[in-house]
Amino acid sequence: MASRPLFATARDGTSLFVQDWGTGKAVLLLAAWTFNSSVWGSQIVALNAKGYRCVAPDRRGHGRSDLPATGYDLDTLTNDVAAVIEQRDLRDLTVVAHSMGSIEAVNYLARHGSERVARLVLVAPTTPFIVQTEDNPDAVPRAMVDAQNAAIAQDFPKWMGENEAPFFMPDTPEATRAWIREMMLSVPLPVALACRKTISSADLRAAARAIDRPTLIVHGDKDASAPLELTGGKTARLIKGSRLAVYQGAPHALPLTHSARLMADLLAFMDS
Question: Is 2 within the bounds of a domain?
């Protein structure tokens, strides 16, 4: 097999690092806020062993991708995903998106269509719209979002420490926790805050209603970062024919804390 390029090029010239492993039907893996493609390592190895090709990009400003000053708005981030898909000529694609990755995935289908996508998996999504407005009353008050962002801006490591416990399971090893802390802190704070602004402003209710591909939504009922009823539950009701799998007692970091169960559900969904 010929070696594949390590980078894709965004419309504005930003270089996007891309892990691309294996052969067979392609799976695109989109990471959470302040995570990079390395978080998908266990899933990549497991999917490769089952005969799937795995493509996992680093979002701009994350991991080994370029660090531009701009482009952290939803449409630019979504166009970055499109650049990876088009430059790798990915088709009959399964898109697996965790947390922030869900808004990029859902917006991709709205902006670029579903021609290349066969199915969609949203893992602990932040869709469809997390901030409270007059027509979205059962959501997070804007003042609460602003307070969280102010705390992150003042002392990101302190905020992480205060919010870490419910993000993982009690038995999640310290080595795993330290790895994720280091990954998150490697993202420059202006980028992290710009991405949080994008998450909170993303109203994807209409985009979710328009999705015409088989969709699996996986969510923990103890998710403190994206509570089930505000996110995964609403998203499942908007996407016609979607299936919602609720993991009892599970937190937000499902690819880390529930990797084996997630892989079993993913393989069953892709084989169905």
Answer: no
Tell me, yes or no, whether 212 lies in a domain: yes
- Rounded to whole angstroms, the Cα distance separating 184 from 171 reads 20
Q: Could you tell me the pTM of the whole model?
A: 0.98
| % of the chain with per-residue pLDDT over 70 | 99
Residue 77 near residue 31 (C-beta atoms within 8 A): no
Q: How many domains does the chain have?
A: 1
The whole-chain average pLDDT of the chain stands at 97
Contact 96, 26 (CB under 8 A): no
Question: For residue 32, which of 268, 251, 271, 266 has the smallest C-alpha distance?
Answer: 251
Q: Which domain holds residue 148?
A: 7-271
DSSP state for residue 57 in the 8-state scheme: E
CATH label of the domain that carries residue 16: 3.40.50.1820
- Inside any domain, residue 1: no
- Confirm whether 187 is domain-assigned: yes
Give CA–CA dist 86/200, Å, rounded.
Answer: 28
Catalytic center residues: 99, 223, 252
- Bridge partners, residue 117, by sequence: 93
3-state SS, residue 262 = helix
pLDDT-derived band at 2 (thresholds 50, 70, 90) equals low
> Can you read off the two tokens belonging to residue 168?
């993982």
Torsion angle of the four alpha carbons 100, 106, 110, 115, in this order, in degrees rounded to the nearest 10: 120
